[in-house]
Amino acid sequence: MDGSAGAAASPVLEVNDLETIFHTRDGAVHAVNGVSFQIGEGELLGVVGESGSGKSVTMMSLMKLLPMPPAEVTNGEVLFQGRNVLDMSDTELRALRGGEIGFVFQDPMTSLNPVFTVGFQLIEPLREHLKLSKREAKKRAAELLTLVGIPSAADRLNDFPHQFSGGMRQRVMIAIALACDPKVLIADEPTTALDVTIQAQILELVKDLRRDLGMGIIWITHDLGVVAGIADRVMVMYGGQVVEHADTRELFRSPRHPYTRALMETIPALEGERPERLLSISGTPPTLNAKPSSCPFAPRCAHAFNRCLKENPQIRQVAAGHDVACWWDSETGEATNAA
Predict the structure, then answer these.
(1) Cα–Cα distance between 211 and 201 in angstroms, integer?
(2) Phi/psi at 37 (nearest 5 deg)?
(3) pTM of the model
(4) Which residues, 6+ apart, have CB-to-CB distance to 54 below 8 Å?
(5) Alpha carbon distances (Å) from 93 to 85, 171, 174
(6) Is the N or the C terminus of the chain less surrounded, counting Cβ atoms within 10 Å?
(7) C-alpha distance from residue 185 to each of 96, 176, 232, 294 (Å)
């Protein structure tokens, strides 16, 4: 797959055939298996899948944020504006992280340093990457807190993380990620720990920032309902690989992979359409102690047949802007003739 499902002509970030393993006492764990995608300026890509599907490890791999060892990126390239991130020196990576690519982690309480003020943690990247004076950086820090919707921003620069609510801490994390006007923002399940009201506010904030700043955004989540309202394209991951990739409207109109369909069936329905009980996907995700040689979803799939148990399908285009890795054709209800 070339990551072309609806992607922009000149991507700001392009990932090709990325593979990552973890070396453990029990052998290698193949966490990322040939992931490819791209994202253009001003585009929002939603990355969805269950816990353990490889979403976060993929994004941390491409930023070289994983501890190495035990992690090792064994294949692929990550092109940012034509440069391969995987070949960058530590100095180049420091300039890239927080400068040209921002990262918002899942838990703001553990991501923010509790012994430093929020102002210090905002000002430091501004002085490091943009070489601003202390006065300029403080002014910019207050502007960033205002941008993400924190009232009395200048006064709150002197507060510590524990003095902010969970939603406000997440806004601070977004402000830090935005500090140096990155070309790409990677958000790793940033609303998971928040209540639904605060979650909705953060999603609206991201929509506004994307419109106003024009950055590419990668939004990692296990919740298809979230990406339905904000993403241009959706990439569905399972077993460390991409199983479906399509424009958002096309994916929700016509999901082709049995895993994507199963995920959609687990979304709670509106009142009046709710089944007697919430559905779940039977079975458990694969352990990935070896690189998949068969379809990783086959043991949990109601449509699996002999070929699924023997051969891992390559991702292929099934419609304009719609790629799927599956031996079963959802349109005909029969096996495909794909090579």
Answers:
(1) 15
(2) -170, 170
(3) 0.85
(4) 31, 32, 33, 35, 237, 239, 240, 241
(5) 8, 24, 20
(6) C
(7) 12, 11, 15, 34
Q: Which of 284, 240, 243, 286 is nearest to 261 (CA)?
A: 243
Coil, strand, or helix at residue 301?
A: coil
**Long-range contacts formed by 296-302: CB under 8 A, 24+ apart:** 296/238, 296/239, 296/240, 296/241, 297/238, 297/239, 297/243, 297/257, 297/258, 297/259, 300/259, 300/262, 301/258, 301/259, 301/328, 302/258
CA 192 to mean position of chain CA atoms: 13
3-state class (DSSP) for residue 202: helix
Q: What is the spatial distance between Cα 84 and Cα 31, in angstroms, rounded to a whole number?
A: 21
Is residue 330 classed as helix, strand or coil in its secondary structure? coil
Is 170 in a helix, a strand, or coil?
A: helix
User: Any idea which residue has 């506010």 for tokens?
Assistant: 201
Count Cβ atoms below 10 Å from residue 28 Cβ, excluding itself. 16
76: left (phi over 0), alpha (psi -120 to 50) or beta: left
Of 313, 241, 185, the residue nearest 3 (C-alpha)? 241
**Exposure b/e, 288-324, CB count within 10 A at least 16 = b:** beeebebbbbbebbebbeebbeeebbebeebeebbbb
